[in-house]
Batch of 3 targets.
Target 1
Amino acid sequence: MSYRKSNRLHNVCYDIRGPVFEAAQKIEAKGHKVLKLNIGNPAEFNLFAPDEIHVDVIQNLREADGYAPSHGLFSARKAIMQNLQLRHIDCDINRIWLGNGVSELISLITSALLNPGDEVLVPAPDYPLWTAAITLTGAVPIHYRCDESDNWQPDTTDVDSKISERTRAIVVINPNNPTGVCYSADCLRKLVDLAEQHQLVVLADEIYDKVVYPPHQHIPMASLVRRAPCLSFNGLSKSHRLAGFRSGWVTATGDLSEAGDLIEGINMLCSMRLCSNVPAQLAVQTALGGVQSIDQLVAEGGRLYQQRLAATEAFQALEGVELVTPQAAMYCFVRVCNELYDLPERDEDLVLAFLEEAHVLIVQGSAFNLQSNRYFRFVFLPSEDELIHAIHLFGEFLQRYRK
């Protein structure tokens, strides 16, 4: 008898931790060091959370022995609500749900919202968990174009053309992963107009909202959406370097007058998992209160600012490699020019070959649902010396594909 995976997993992929990652693990098992430029994991590169957060969690850890309310701890939800108020966003404290990272909440919300055959607009390139979670529900992800020639801003004309009577929601990833771009106010307003006109639920992935480099600024979708439901996703993984805590939340704002059934569904699914991990919730109040430690890292002269600059300059020095300078997040999304290089048909094959030769792990563009073999994402979290060396290795490696 053959034991097969569920049919629901057909066409579901998450290649950021897929076959290439497994190949890297095999290389490490042989005793070799692999420079992991595939995942935005700050702690991997000695970017740790503020000590104050750890101290406060430890002091209150006894409170985490039992279950928390399904929504999440009151103190954590109150801190999230007050943080939104500082940005002039009103949110009912009972419309805030804590989760085991944004990843769990993406799956929970799509399960609460979608039926088989529904359609959801998703950017291309995207953070692939969105496409995977939507597919698992039996709904259909419809990818809309982001325009590289326009700093990877969503092509709102393309968005409009892909809205159908089956469209239920639109995903907006801003700041964007993998491109590292902050969307303009004009672009966001056009997306909001389309969502409100067609009564789409706005699903705003804003996990990088504090990892923004001057002079750029992030505009939260909840500050713009008035006549449709807006579900915004955020957490402590990136801004507070607490990826392992799995501390995330989703907030519901905008016009919720017709969303009572959806909210009941969210509450039901939250109750079924009893609660999200409580120690991670203890970190929220301290993390969101007072001075935000990420500010120094992204300010001019700060570590992340300088590493972004070093990586960008190193890529710009490579012949036939282009990128839009990242304005936020922690990724360089580069394109290898067709005019100079004849690349393998499968971008995954190039990534595997680079891994085997240089012991540097990156991610192919097709992992982000981009139909091209010429895009690659690099994390710029390592030290400047490590970054520049890895990028030089990539430039030397590309020469084998030169026309």
Note: The chain has two domains: 7-48+296-401, 52-288.
Target 2
Amino acid sequence: MELNDFIANFADQFDETDASEIQADTRFHDLEEWSSLTAMGIIAMVRTKYDKAVTGREIRDCETVEDIFNMIAAK
């Protein structure tokens, strides 16, 4: 699993946010478009693309996109 690929897949979950706004150090909770629906999309993307399960709580505990990447990579 590559960080840049994960960032691209993460950015794909947003409809209105430009992908260039999403970087490893992006505090995704601060994105205007972030919502519980987006979180569900991230959970589904992680299961589909990386065959790993994450919970809403685990995502809430992360601050940046890279934090989510590291949490998934450690599973």
Note: The chain has a mean pLDDT of 96.
Target 3
Amino acid sequence: MFEFEQDIVNVLLTEDGNFRRLYDKHHALKERVSHANAGEEPLDDLSLETLKKQKLMLKDQMAMMIEQYRRTHPRVSH
């Protein structure tokens, strides 16, 4: 997730508690979805889709925070 923005993600994980909370929750949901898809956690289709939507909403929120950080912290070109 956000492989091309890893530097910004690392800064936000360290400096922004809200970003850290979203990141951790996304990770937990990702694990649950993975376990459900592997048959390790029994979930009906509706519950699984709900988890996937929650995970996507978190990812979208983090993407907005990354974009905001990029706009307020422009990289210096040499």
Note: Residues 45-72 form the longest helix (28 residues).
